Request: fold
Amino acid sequence: METMTLLWTIVGFSIASYTVIANDSIQTLGTWMASNRRVDWRIMWGAASTVLLFALWYGFFMYGDISYGRLEKIPYIEPQWYHAMAPAVLLLLTRIGVPVSTSFLVLSAFASSFVLEKMLVKSFAGYAVAAVSAYVIWGIISKWMSNVELGGSDRNWRIAQWSVTGWLWWTWLSHDMANMAVFLPRAIDPMVLVAISVLFITGLGFMFREQGGKIQEIVKSKTKTKYVRSATLIDLIYLIILWYFKEYNSIPMSTTWVFIGLLSGRELAIATFNGEVKKTYPIVAKDFGKLMVGVGASMGIIIGIHTLT
Reply:
């Protein structure tokens, strides 16, 4: 590998690794962190790191590819400086709290327009399914949830939440690992995998120490996400939807869109139950607008790369 190619591979992968984990992991770990504020962040970091290492090494040994085959339609391209610009833009948006799609923003620098179109269609479908499912489910259970003491210390619910979060975290990693692995040759050396493991755990630790950073506000701003029962139900429904789309085909999709769709549908259902729908529309519209920022940035990256090449 040429020196400059190696340089941009390291730079691009390192920035992508931190920003993808810091931006997208809030979908899977955000409600878990919000509802376990009294637990030492180092304990949660250790638990999340254990699942992360399992997902990373399982993909390596079972698939021969840490992306779990998600990049089979995106052939390896030697990274150049303009490829590294995609995660750099994502890093900036992450630091100011914009929940953009890392799949679009990072993979768009490598994917063909045909693959990107399929990613868009699949992501829109994921958003719609998540929003409708959440609206229907919370429309049914809102009355029950409002009559249950959510702030109590319920050991069974706490165990259920940690179990669901672990499974969800692995499911998300097996999908979104492609957003980082796209910078690497599809077959890597075990020593490279060790270095990647250290990098991932370090970035994850920084994210936990920051309590999710500004992007965590997306979760905190939603109704009762700090309560363990609400958080568990959100994660369980998200897990089922994400698992379905992950198994449907190998085309990458925006897990961010699915998560935002889930939260939006839930907020609308709760607002409908409380007769406050008008107050919720601006929140839903704001979150959706932020997703469109990611799509716009992705289109800009594609146009820029095609212009340069």
